[in-house]
Amino acid sequence: MDSMSPNIFVEDINKTIGFYESIGFQLVMTVPEAGAEPVWAMMSNGDVTFMFQTFASLGDELPEISRTNGGSLLFYIKLKKIREFFELIKDKVTVLKGLETTFYGATEFSILDNNRYVLTFAEDE
After folding, report:
1. What string of DSSP letters covers 53-105?
2. Three-state DSSP class for 114?
3. I need a labelling partner for 26 at 20 to 30 A (CA). Which of 33, 59, 77, 113 fits?
4. Which of 16, 125, 1 is nearest to 70 (CA)?
5. pTM for the predicted model, two decimal places
6. Residue 24: in which H helix or E strand, if any?
């Protein structure tokens, strides 16, 4: 195996793109490309890549996929300079858990994205 990039189902691609851009992700590509309303987007920040796809574009192909936002899923993202990153985004997002040092020595904080998915950022300081 070489990599894993989650494909996250969302209601509104454009709002999702805006949210992730506000916390430092860059838009890599959309389908369809510029000019039409996107149904899929890829965004990245460093080595972290997310794909987002509308529920509507899925149709009835995979009925096993829930058609609700959020859920029992947490994305754990490691980065450097966590304190600087926290200060940069804390007023733009819903912070679920502020900066804290865990019993295993990582400094972490958690936020809620615009689709109710939990993102936990961590650094081994």
Report:
1. EEHHHHTTS-TTS-SSS--S-EEEEE-S-HHHHHHHHTTTSEEEEEEEE-TTS
2. coil
3. 59
4. 16
5. 0.85
6. none
